[in-house]
């Protein structure tokens, strides 16, 4: 869990939101920790420590991540439960199972005694337990059903419908993994998912061939190859659309539609046999410098393809290997976990 990120279309509301809004492609754990040190009295310090923790966890530095989550928990405040989830995940990753169980049960007791219920944390814990190094499917199902029982018995807020839908889906998946016969709720979830998948596939079909460069094939028949996708940053996306209207009109009016198309393109590369898929971070200022040096026509789609190759070599530290870790920051700069963001667009 990474906590809410700054919206890129709004004025940042806090110093930490301003810090997040200034990031292109994410920050290192050290950068998040440095922000926390520089703003020690700021109420968003726990949030920065949690971002740092998930970044270290993504790099498999689970001891370092555990220490950061514990520091965030010591600070208290509204991020405390997010920090507890992080602690539990690191304990399981480190195979400190007894400690993980104790922390899990303590959090559950705290949640069950809290009104209104924190459905977000119930949902996060159900997913964590199902994805742990040693999956705890029955425990995960119990967390789902406990949360669902509370949605029917208490006033759980305006977001209750969204949480209930997600919990029902997780419950259905867990029951299938446990070999349980589908019940009425499972059948309702299957019908809703089929309808949603059809709508998503229709949208992605409209976006085929509009990515710079397209990942529609044909792919090499022999030998290993890497998939390379050019991704304009959120900051540059509006100007990129203005410059190349013929290839970006169908992107939609927001970065989320663009990111969904890029995600589908990356998936095509992956299923098409690419050894790696590299998401190259493009910036228009660098593109302009490239064109001035190369003499290539800026409106030629081939120029953007060649720029992607050049940029990959010149700014390798900004090239993102796809897919990121499911619990790591998403590649699209949203500030959310990958599994909560672009991974949702991995339609079959």
Structural class: mainly alpha
Beta content: under 5%
Large-scale geometry: globular
The helix tally amounts to 15
Count of beta strands: 3
How far apart are the termini? 26 Å
**Rg, Å, rounded:** 22 Å
Query: Low-confidence runs (pLDDT<50, min 5 residues)?
Result: 1-10, 203-211, 213-218
If you had to describe this structure to a student in words, what would you say it looks like?
With 348 residues, this protein is mostly helical. The protein is 57% helix and 5% strand. It is built from 15 helices and 3 strands. A 3-stranded mixed sheet has the order 1-2-3, sandwiched between helices. The chain is globular, with a radius of gyration of 22 Å.
Which features does this protein show?
disordered N terminus, 15 helices, three-stranded mixed sheet, mainly alpha, 5% strand, 348 residues
Short characterization:
The chain is mainly alpha-helical and 348 residues long. Helices cover 57% and strands 5% of the residues.
Outline the fold blueprint.
Layout: H1 15-21, H2 29-38, H3 45-58, H4 62-75, H5 80-93, H6 97-112, H7 119-131, H8 137-153, H9 160-177, H10 184-207, E1 226-232, H11 237-243, H12 245-248, H13 255-271, E2 276-282, H14 284-294, H15 301-314, E3 320-322
Parallel strand pairs: 1-2
Antiparallel strand pairs: 2-3
Helix pairs in contact: 2-3, 3-4, 3-5, 4-5, 5-6, 5-7, 7-8, 7-9, 8-9, 9-10, 14-15
């Amino acid at each position: 869990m990474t906590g809410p990120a700054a919206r890129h279309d709004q004025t940042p509301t806090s110093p930490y939101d301003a810090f997040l809004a200034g990031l292109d492609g994410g920050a290192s754990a050290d950068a998040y920790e440095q922000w926390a040190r520089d703003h020690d009295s700021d109420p968003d310090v726990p949030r920065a420590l949690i971002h740092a923790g998930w970044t270290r966890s993504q790099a498999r530095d689970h001891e370092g991540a555990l220490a950061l989550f514990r520091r965030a928990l010591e600070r208290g405040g509204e991020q405390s439960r997010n920090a507890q989830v992080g602690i539990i995940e690191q304990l399981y990753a480190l195979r400190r199972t007894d400690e993980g169980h104790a922390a899990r049960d303590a959090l559950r007791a705290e949640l069950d005694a809290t009104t209104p219920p924190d459905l977000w944390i119930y949902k996060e814990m159900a997913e964590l337990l199902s994805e742990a190094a040693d999956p705890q499917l029955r425990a995960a199902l119990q967390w789902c059903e406990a949360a669902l029982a509370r949605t029917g018995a208490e006033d759980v807020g305006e977001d209750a419908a969204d949480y209930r839908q997600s919990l029902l889906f997780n419950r259905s998946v867990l029951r299938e993994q446990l070999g349980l016969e589908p019940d009425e709720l499972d059948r309702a979830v299957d019908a809703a998912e089929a309808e949603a998948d059809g709508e998503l596939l229709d949208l992605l079909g409209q976006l085929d061939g509009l990515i710079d460069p397209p990942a529609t094939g044909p792919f090499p028949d022999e030998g290993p190859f890497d998939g390379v996708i050019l991704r304009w940053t959120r900051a540059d996306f509006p100007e990129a659309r203005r410059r190349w209207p013929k290839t970006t009109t169908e992107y939609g009016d927001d970065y989320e539609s663009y990111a969904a198309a890029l995600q589908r393109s990356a998936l095509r590369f992956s299923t098409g046999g690419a050894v790696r898929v590299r998401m190259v971070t493009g910036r228009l200022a660098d593109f302009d410098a490239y064109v001035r040096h190369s003499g290539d026509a800026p409106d030629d789609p081939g120029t953007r393809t060649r720029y992607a190759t050049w940029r990959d070599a010149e700014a390798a530290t900004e090239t993102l290997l796809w897919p990121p870790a499911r619990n790591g920051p998403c590649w699209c700069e949203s500030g959310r976990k990958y599994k909560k963001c672009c991974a949702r667009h991995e339609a079959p």
